[in-house]
Amino acid sequence: MLQFLRGMPKIELHAHLNGSLNIGSIRELAAKVYGVQTKEFSALCERFIKFEKGAKLDECFEKFGLMHELTATKEGLESATELVIRDFAKDNVIYVELRTTPKSNENMSRRSYLDTVLGVIRKTSDLYNIKVKLLPSINRAEPVDVAEETVALAVELSAIEPDIIVGIDFSGNPNQGKFKDFMPVLNKARNHGLKLAMHCAEVDNPLEIREMLRFGMSRCGHGTYLSASGFEYMKEENIPIECCLTSNVKSGTVANIGVHHLKQLMEADAPKVLCTDDSGVFDTTLTDEFFLATESFGLTRSQCIALTMEAVEHAFATREEKLMLKMQIYSYTRRQNK
């Protein structure tokens, strides 16, 4: 099964750029851009992926400090973006939607941050034979005026790069910020044709979950604390839940893999997709996530293919792109069945 999954063309719909560099690529980035390859740095890398038993979600967000430092320059950001795209392609991911919060520091403005990421995507998509989209992220822990700048940039740049910038991600520490404060700017993005991928029900906050469901979204990130009625709502509205198995277990939002809500979603026949979230932080790949699902919930080859086809349907891709992706997946299944 593992060999089949490694070769299977895959669709990644929930991947944060700064969290998707694996340890090898972090070392490669540090050596290339900063010349850092000390024992201390190696130890720091090991702590980057180490999760103690009983880890809490807040601890996961603290780990991003390392990556923010490594991508604080244009050269660092360029290299990191290319390495992430390369690593997904190595895992036979043929389509990925990357999410990233535009940063502003002494080296870059938020505009130049997005311009840099866009430049790498344009350069590397054909090089690694992978279709890459970009969802600029709103970090709910930051002020609303930062979100407004991010959306304004996304709207402007999506008119220039409509095949790359296709939506907005709403994420960040769910224990910080209030969703209702961001509703106007999210509505602005939606009114300009951008899809909304929103982290929803990542923690147990019934009031906010109701607010988010009423507001609406194109895809739901995590959905860990959705009730049975919430699953039913997602099914009625055809809103997929982006399930990130390893992420949820390691961050402590799910007690163990056996009780992950993917099982409930499958039983309810509700829309769902398998994703990595932060493949570097959680030391996983999309192949690993599929294999974990087969080991934990008994998914068959045909169910893995069906989940991949379902991901195609929920991708923020054009009709023509979806057709091409389906043809690649179908071609693989035909070769395997010979």
TrEMBL record:
Coiled-coil boundaries: none
Catalytic activities: N(6)-methyl-AMP + H2O + H(+) = IMP + methylamine
GO biological process: adenosine catabolic process; inosine biosynthetic process; nucleotide metabolic process
Keyword Metal-binding: yes
Cofactor: Zn(2+)
Keywords on record: Hydrolase, Metal-binding, Nucleotide metabolism, Zinc
Any one GO molecular function term: metal ion binding
Pfam families reported for this sequence: A_deaminase
InterPro entries the record matches: A_deaminase_dom, Ado/ade_deaminase, Metal_Hydrolase
Domain Adenosine deaminase: 9-330
Protein family (similarity comment): Belongs to the metallo-dependent hydrolases superfamily. Adenosine and AMP deaminases family.
The name this protein goes by in its record: Adenosine deaminase-like protein
Species this chain originates from: Drosophila hydei
Gene name per UniProt: LOC111604857
